[in-house]
Design a protein that fits this description.
The chain has 212 residues and is an alpha+beta fold. It is 43% helix and 25% strand.
Length: 212
């Protein structure tokens, strides 16, 4: 049974619609490190991440990965490329074991685009991605290092448990050394506390003061 209701995109569909949607979908499991898709591949399906963490990245001229975004289940991945019927603008791979539901987009357009609720779900999904883009701009252009990390931790409370420090540094496009210094500063300010397994959040509202 494919649990399509796990994703916000399908929360307006009724039970009959969900059964019909399941008929044009398939569930695929991946191991950590597996490629979900490569940049410039055809985006001919809707991809719903139902388990795990996927990173979206581009490769620079020196073959280094530049992390664009990390997505945690449940969410649609790269649906803007699918709706626009253009190739994927970046690559995606799993940072954990995970599972996706692949939905045939040609059949989806034919069977679902005129159904009540689907249009509003599309708008909701694309609006969420626009918000993600605004967050990336804020984190990497508008804010300085201190404000950038404060906003990131404030909006992603569980990230200190879920990601290693180098992965957080990748998300924020800063060096691991800069991240380490800023985390230490936050600890001195009483915003974080360093334990045996890493840092823990201690003053969430104190973080907000640093970026507002």
């Amino acid at each position: 049974m494919i649990d399509l209701q796990k994703c916000y995109f399908f929360d307006n569909l009724n039970e009959d619609d969900l059964k019909e949607l399941e008929g044009i979908s398939k569930r695929i499991s991946y191991t950590k490190g597996s490629i979900l898709f490569y940049e410039k591949e055809d985006a001919d399906a809707l991809i719903m991440l139902v388990e795990g963490v996927v990173k979206i990245y581009k490769t620079d001229l020196k073959n280094n990965e530049v992390i664009m975004r990390r997505f945690r289940a449940p969410t649609l991945v790269a649906e803007m490329a699918t709706f626009e019927e253009i190739p994927f603008p970046a690559s995606a791979s799993f940072e954990t074991d995970g599972t996706v539901v692949i939905i045939d987009f040609t059949k989806f357009k034919k069977q679902f685009m005129d159904k009540p609720g689907v249009s509003s779900s599309i708008i909701k999904s694309l609006s969420k991605k626009v918000k993600n883009l605004e967050e990336v701009i804020d984190l990497n252009i508008v804010l300085d290092t201190t404000a950038r990390l404060a906003k990131y931790l404030y909006e992603n409370e569980a990230v200190l448990d879920e990601l290693k420090n180098y992965q957080i540094a990748e998300d924020l496009h800063m060096t691991p050394e800069t991240l380490s210094r800023t985390l230490k500063k936050f600890s001195i300010l009483g915003l974080l506390e360093k334990g045996a397994s890493g840092y823990e959040l201690k003053n969430l509202e104190g973080l907000r003061v640093l970026f507002e």
